[in-house]
Every structure is written in structure tokens, then in C-alpha cells.
Amino acid sequence: MDFRVNTDTWFVFCILFISALALCIILYITIPFFIRKRQVNRIKSRHEKKILKYNQLERKKTELKLSIQEENIKKLKTDISDYLYQITQSDSGPNLVTFYSNFEKIYPNFSHSLKKISPNISTNELKLCALIRLNLSSKEIGQLLNITQDSVNKARYRLRKKLGLISNEDIFTMLLNLK
Length: 179
Prior knowledge:
mainly alpha; 7 helices
């Protein structure tokens, strides 16, 4: 038996075998690559969802804190209004200590911000600023502090100079914009 393989057929079989082997090697490399890539994308999407949920929870938490603080501020503002009314109606003299403590609760950074602007501001001037911040008139401030209206106007003038305001600037708007 004479078994002879044609060289052309042998060449075609070799090319087919090498091509099949190359295809197997390429598949062996690319399939795990795409599987890993899909897993990485899934992990990234899970991570992004977790971050999104975390941000939503943080946002809800801050909104809740803000709403609670706003409710407290509203309550304290009504308390301050009540204290001011009681102080003005009181014959025994004003009890301003509780008023100023409640004012500091509502505006915690007010005195600190004023001290940044004018470090040598006195406590009486801070109290005057608090009353001006509440948009009280000179007459009302005079009644609360047991001083005359002219004294209040002089104190306002000195305060304007200390804060470095020019004549056309309003002290109330400056104190209102103070953070």
C-alpha cells in the first residue's frame, strides 16, 4: 500500500491546524478578559449605586437636621418676641440676660463675626448690635436699656465709627447681612 499525501493537501491541513490552534489561543485569552471586564463593570455599577444611596441618605440627614434647626429657630424667635414683649411690659425692670442668651442661640456666630470686624467692640456695643439686628427703634432700645433716645443715637454713631461704616451705609443692613 502506497500511502502518499499530497503536499498541497498537507499544506492546507497544516494551515487549518495552525489556524484552529491560534483561534483556541485567542479564545482562551479573550473570553476570560471579557468575563473579567463584565465583572468589573458590575462591581463599578454596584459601587456607584452605593455611593448614590449614601449621598441620598446624607442629603436626607442634612435636610432633616436643617428642618429641625429651622423649627428650633422659629421657636426661639417666638420666645425672643415674647421676652421682648414681657420686658417692655414689665415694671420691675428688664431681664435681658435670658433675652441675650436666646439671641445667642438663634444667631450663634453673630458676636464672633462682629469681633472679627472690630476686635475692640465692648459687650454693651454687642448688646446694642443685637437689638439693632432685631430692627428695634431707638425709642424701644432706650426703653429696654433704660437710657434716653439721644444716648441710643450717640451709641449708634460710635458703633458706626467703630465698625468703619460710611455715612450712607445703614447699620441695620450691615448687621442683617452678617453671618
